[in-house]
Amino acid sequence: MTIIQPLYPIHQIEEIKRFYTREQTAGPEISAREIRMGETRMLWYSYLAEKEYHMPMQLRGERVEMHFKLHGRSGVSYEGEQFVMHSNEQSLFYQHDLEGEFILFPDVESSFFEVEFSRSVFESLVTEECPFLQQFSQQLQTARNHLWPGHSMAITPKMHMIISEMGNTPYTGQMKRLFLEAKLIELFLLQASGFDQYTPHITDLRSADIERLHAARQYLEQHFTDDCSIISLAGQVGINQKKLKQGFKALFGHTVFGYLSHIRMEKARQLLLDEKKTVGEVSELVGYQHPQHFAAAFKRKYNILPGSLKN
Length: 311
Fold this sequence. Notes:
By secondary structure, the protein is α+β, with helices and mostly antiparallel strands. The protein has two domains: 14-196, Sandwich (Jelly Rolls), CATH 2.60.120; 207-310, Orthogonal Bundle (Arc Repressor Mutant, subunit A), CATH 1.10.10. Helix content is 41%, strand content 26%. It starts with 13 loop residues before the first strand and ends in a 9-residue tail after the last helix. GO terms for molecular function: DNA-binding transcription factor activity; sequence-specific DNA binding. Pfam families: HTH_18. This is AraC-like DNA-binding protein.
């Protein structure tokens, strides 16, 4: 019995890993991983830019893109508009035969995950129970080259978990296809329902306040191993404590300490998986004095003990 109509033929799944040199990109070195399943692509990109780059962009054809900026800051510019996304932000885009440029900002390691699928796949997922998707689809009935909701939203902890699971699944073959399809749909539903329920909460923040809140988040990303307090962070970026606490939550979807914990756990997971560090070493590197406290925090976030990743 078929529960859902497959998004792509069962036999079509392909995984590609690439490394682009400076000569190839005319910019920084870029590591890329791609999984193709018919009309759908999942892509992971990471790079470190030592200066600001403006790189030519040519997008041929028609697609809908779920974009998740995991770390750093980057942007695109086309048709007289510029879109910049910061760490822990996500949004939905429609693009059709666009030319412009990618903007890579310097000094901070940058990475993102995105899912690209055809317009026909997107339309098959539109449902009347989600006014946001219906409105997005209706806007596409008018010929255009690009469309987005007009704002980004925070990547929720659940979204981070799904993206991590998709990138580290132990399944192979058709089991992997089934797993990725299920997670892709779950991620799409989370994104769509988030935009559907969105209500602005930052109208009382001045542009200067928003800049200071972004500075606070960047400071946490660069000093996540340090002891931090609301008082010290507010003083560091020049904002009062109440506005820091309330504005940070409204703008980024995390409390200050919730975001700090998220950064530490993501870095810890990367050290355990990619650099094969011991649990004790990782605990110290991400700012914990006691490995047992680190292990408890890691289990709360990922529902697995850190030592299990090394087995």
